[in-house]
Design a protein that fits this description.
The chain is mainly α. Helices cover 84% and strands 0% of the residues. Helix 1 packs antiparallel against helix 6 and helix 4 packs antiparallel against helix 5.
Length: 168
């Protein structure tokens, strides 16, 4: 997910700029395509890994995992429905901020919930970190949100993944 967010939100940052003027000739649709392709690849890799890891899991733990997975689907679907409904009524930058901020809110909350379900403080604090970066970015505007998300979340996930892999 880190690479997808780094590339996708960097494309958005180059589209928005920090003062509302683009830094590169990248349209909002092109930035969205970069982000969506990255997320689809990351989602497929994650689904494959989770499926392989959970083959031996049974009972209550498997049920918790399934419900948690359905919560991701429901949350993302609901935010998409809300954003589809409200986006046409907003300026393009604000519509993009609605989409990005709304989706990252789901990510933050579900990481915190996952940490609570499995008593995993690292997972919980990842959710807190995503919430904090998302909240500051939304307050600062679309360009800042994209920059902070790309660097602090996308880059942060990459660094954390490499660090955890090295520890293992």
């Amino acid at each position: 997910m880190g690479v997808a967010w780094l590339l996708g939100f960097t494309a958005y940052f180059l589209h928005y700029g920090l003062d509302g003027r683009p830094y590169a000739p990248i349209s909002q649709a092109q930035a969205q395509i970069v982000l969506m392709i990255g997320q689809m690849v990351a989602g497929a890799v994650a689904a494959y890994g989770i499926t392989r890891m959970n083959r031996q899991v049974r009972g209550e733990t498997r049920a918790k995992g399934a419900m948690y997975g359905y919560a991701w689907f429901a949350g993302i679907t609901l935010v998409a429905i809300i954003a589809i409904r409200l986006s046409p009524q907003l300026p393009p930058q604000e519509a993009g901020l609605l989409w990005g901020g709304g989706m990252l809110t789901i990510v933050a909350v579900l990481y915190m919930v996952g940490g609570a379900i499995w008593i995993n403080w690292q997972m919980f604090f990842v959710g807190v970190w995503v919430a904090a970066v998302n909240g500051v970015g939304v307050l600062l505007g679309a360009g800042w949100h994209a920059l902070l998300t790309a660097v602090l979340l996308g880059g942060g996930f990459i660094v954390a993944g490499l660090w955890l892999r090295r520890r293992a």
